[in-house]
Amino acid sequence: MLRHRHRLGLGAAGRPATAAELPDHIAVATGLRVDIQALRGLAILLVLLHHAEWPWVPAGFLGVDIFFVISGFLITGLIDQALDDGRFTFRDFYTRRIRRLFPAAYATLTLTALVAPFLLDPLEYRDFAPQLAGAFGFFANVVLWQQSSYFGSGAALKPLLHMWSLSIEEQFYILLPPALLLCPCRLRPALVALMVLVSAGLCFTLVQLSPSATFYMLPTRAWELGLGALAALALRRRAGLRGPWPLLRLACASALLLLPLLASKDSHPGLAALLACLATAILLLPGAPGGRWQAGLAPLVWLGNRSYSLYLLHWPLFVFASHVFIGPVPPSLRALIVLASLGGAALQYRFVEQRFRGLDLTPLRLAGFVLVPLLLVGATYVASRSLTTPTTVARGGGQGLSPACDFRDRFLPLAECRSPPTQGPTGTATLLWGDSFAMALSPGLAATTSGGLIQATRSVCGPFIDLAPINHGQNPRAWGESCIRFNRSVLDYIASQPEIGTVVLSSALVQYIPGGEARSWRQLVATPEGLSEQPQDLEALLHALAATVERLRELGKRVVLFAPPPIVGLDMGRCLDRAAAGRPTVSPFPDCSYTRATYEAARLPLRDLLATIRTIGDVPVIDLDVALCGSGMCATQMDGVPLYRDGDHLSGPGSRLLGEALDWGAWVDQVAR
């Protein structure tokens, strides 16, 4: 997201053209690309409104895609011109990048690192240290890919999440100059076009297979910067620029205004990103609109001038607020954060960006650019390890007996996913089958199951044969197909193991229930004709549950369904952790507990489903409502032990405590049939 006072096109002998040498429709009196700064202003405005959760801008994240195209355009134009003039050097190129990017980035990262230990949750602060290292080293996208999905609920708690896009740009800046340098001038457009085609092909193929990697990685996002690069090469060569520009520009400007209002985050980057990038690239080709439009563009130009600092500063402020609030941040506070971001960006632009633009990079200053990250990252690593509380430990893990028990395509009888019998070798084993909610039950069941526990679990994938939940985010159709394969492999394993006497089914269930949660789900159903995508349907879920139970009983197994624990959609694990660590916290439940009435209202669709299952009577149901909410208040901790690790799942210590207190093993043995 570089800002350049970029001149338009070339004049005689390849030198930068002055305004007088350019047609009126692509020049302004100063010879500067006012339209580029206006596009930057629009892009940062979209990002800012999206992060402020402005309800009418659901796809404001497209502002980042606009930034990518602009960055590719500006950088490629500078490199191509310098190469043609015979004055390109890597030293000069990267010196400019350091002067432009490092001061504001270092200022923001330093302030964020200084505030983080006082406001972040202890668990998130542990994740902050590698984020900080990645931000300084321009590999934040790789770190964040390992930590979270950009559109996942945990993303709102990562102060440096936004650095993924700057990392992609810097990686692009590292690879582009040598590629253009080694390529003959006449072949540069073909080289960039090939890169765009390959990258776009990877992107639109892999977004269905690995959405998170596709979102974060340069090979699948380079096409966006590449479109800007193609526009720069075309403009400098004046190749193929004839056409009905006024109408085309109007259509492209309309697209950039309408797409953020109409598109969704599903399958991003996808068609909406492609249209936004193409529209941006086309708008960059003819140049700035005539001078009569400058006054109207002034607010966007002002934002565009400060877009880099505004992008850097705004997101940590939103994240810090999200940490303090257990629940939604009030709209009024989000509005104040927008104003604070604007004010902070204006100050940083004036006193950091402008001041250091002509910085002389002496060896001592370069050493400082290395020393500052080392000191900050090192101090953060040390501090993050010293802030651990017992509650923080309870919030970790979550895969049950072992991280290896969060299987992928096929279940394997791993030794680490099996607990020893609690009463010697006698008795039959119990198999726990389900999604992450089943994983959370594993410690308690393992501690109380006499014949030993076998854990067969996969995140999000409920224990229902021939049925899988899918969406257009992290769980696309390819994921649903592998979920169905996983469940079939579990059933095959059960059929081959006579030692298994009981099967415990467990799932969040909400991914199958219409209106069960905010995310948009569909379902993939295996039929005699093949796999079919369908809307969520309770009848299909009940049919799959009945078919699963029937098949298990045909194999001679006893079955029970273990219901999700009482939850209200707020992160009680984080609430307890902040209280234990003394962090400032604003919560609708000051003591991190809630009433049974609140729970019942929040989980009405799920409770209705469980009531239907009990009425049908195909499978007995175990739930913890009475145990945890019997007094009218739902407990979130017992004997100082946090029962939840997040807003949904039991913690490992909490599961073990409840399992032993309620003797889950005997309970399962008593009711299973």
TrEMBL record:
Keyword Transit peptide set for record: no
Origin species: Neoroseomonas oryzicola
Listed GO MF terms: acyltransferase activity, transferring groups other than amino-acyl groups
Stored PANTHER family: ACETYLTRANSFERASE, ACYL_TRANSF_3 DOMAIN-CONTAINING PROTEIN
Transmembrane segments: 56-79, 100-120, 190-209, 247-264, 270-288, 364-383
Official protein name in the record: Acyltransferase
Domain SGNH, residue spans: 405-662
Superkingdom in the source lineage: Bacteria
Domain Acyltransferase: 35-346
Keywords: Acyltransferase, Membrane, Transferase, Transmembrane, Transmembrane helix
Example GO biological process: lipopolysaccharide biosynthetic process
GO cellular component terms listed in the entry, alphabetical order: membrane
InterPro entries named in the record: Acyl_transf_3_dom, Acyltransferase_3, SGNH
Pfam families listed in its UniProt record: Acyl_transf_3, SGNH
